[in-house]
Amino acid sequence: MKKVFIARTLAFCLLLTVLSPANLHGASEVPSRKVAIVIDDLGNDMLGTEEILNLDIPITVAIMPFLPTTKRDAKWAKEKGHDVFVHLPMEPNRGKKSWLGPGAITTDLSDEEIRNRVHAAIDDVPHAIGMNNHMGSKVTAEPRVMRIVLEVCKERNLIYLDSKTTHKSVIPELAKEIGVPVIENHIFLDDIYQVSHISKQFRILLKHIQHHPECIAIGHVGPPGKKTAALLKENIPIIQKEAEFVLASDFVIPQPPLLNMSGGK
After folding, report:
1. Which is higher by pLDDT, 29 or 213?
2. How far apart are CA 45 and CA 52, in angstroms?
3. d(Cα 241, Cα 237) in Å, to the nearest integer?
4. Rounded to 5 degrees, what are φ and ψ at 63?
5. What is the model's pLDDT at position 23?
6. Which residue in 186, 151, 170, 179 sits closest to 37, CA to CA?
7. DSSP letter at 141?
8. Most buried by CB count within 10 Å: which residue of 39, 155, 163, 192?
9. How far from 217 is each of 78, 122, 129, 244, 260, CA to CA, in Å?
């Protein structure tokens, strides 16, 4: 009887192994970890734009307003199924205002002018469902200015992606208070325009997703654009062994509707 019991136990264990999800769906099943790639600075026909938009993965593109290819790039991205964000120019702690581009948000503007500029930027980028900051280390640490920016995002039903250009950002707490869905950048892929550095950042991304369920990584068109596009294409199959590529908007948890506690009155 003991031998029969052992044989039946082994057979049952074998059956469980055969019926496990890994065997039913295949060993190549996509892991539950998720990566969103955000590419900044579109809108001015910068280097790498075509290569990035033609990648065969979901991409979130952040497009600067009021530039020659703003509308073209937004339409192109939408047709490819990518997320479109407004890449709003904001004043940094260091740097020239001329680096920002038209319609920039600066700390010397009045409340009304800030509000008007944010609305105008959103109006200029077709299909936008979100916003993030271009530069902005000074503005994103300034509660008065960011409150207005986020209030407009709330009015226009936009997600806000905090690019995290400063550790002093007030965005997370203000967004929570105002009720704006907010997500945060984890890694800049190409803050230094060298292949060796960008390759290192992709290794950091891989290490991040081995220990975290989600990762948002920001790259750029422009000076590093072709390098970033080529290295991203090279790393796609490597990353896909660890995580699924998603849109940035996939990280936003829908807010449940408020219950009507008044009995319909």
Report:
1. 213
2. 12
3. 7
4. -110, 130
5. 41
6. 186
7. G
8. 39
9. 20, 23, 18, 13, 39
pLDDT in tens, 42-70: 999 999 999 999 999 999 999 999 999 99
Tokens (6 digits) for 7: 């044989």
Query: Nearest Cα to 89, choosing from 134, 122, 44?
Result: 134
In the predicted structure, residue 261 carries a pLDDT above the cut 60: no
* Element at 117 (helix H, strand E): helix 111-124
* Spatial CA neighbour of 160 closest among 117, 125, 118, 129: 129
Q: What sign does the dihedral 224-226-227-229 (CA atoms) show?
A: positive
Q: How far apart are the first and last CA of the chain?
A: 72
Judged against a pLDDT cut of 60, whether residue 151 lies above it is answered with yes
CB-based contacts of 169, cutoff 8 Å, min separation 6: 140, 141, 162
For the chain, the residue count is: 265
Residue 75 CB-density burial (10 A; 0-12 exposed, 13-18 middle, 19+ buried): middle
In the structure, what pLDDT confidence band is assigned to residue 31 with cuts at 50, 70 and 90?
low
DSSP 8-state symbol, 238: H
The structure's pTM equals 0.84
Mean pLDDT of the chain: 88
Of 73, 93, 94, nearest to 84 (Cα)? 73
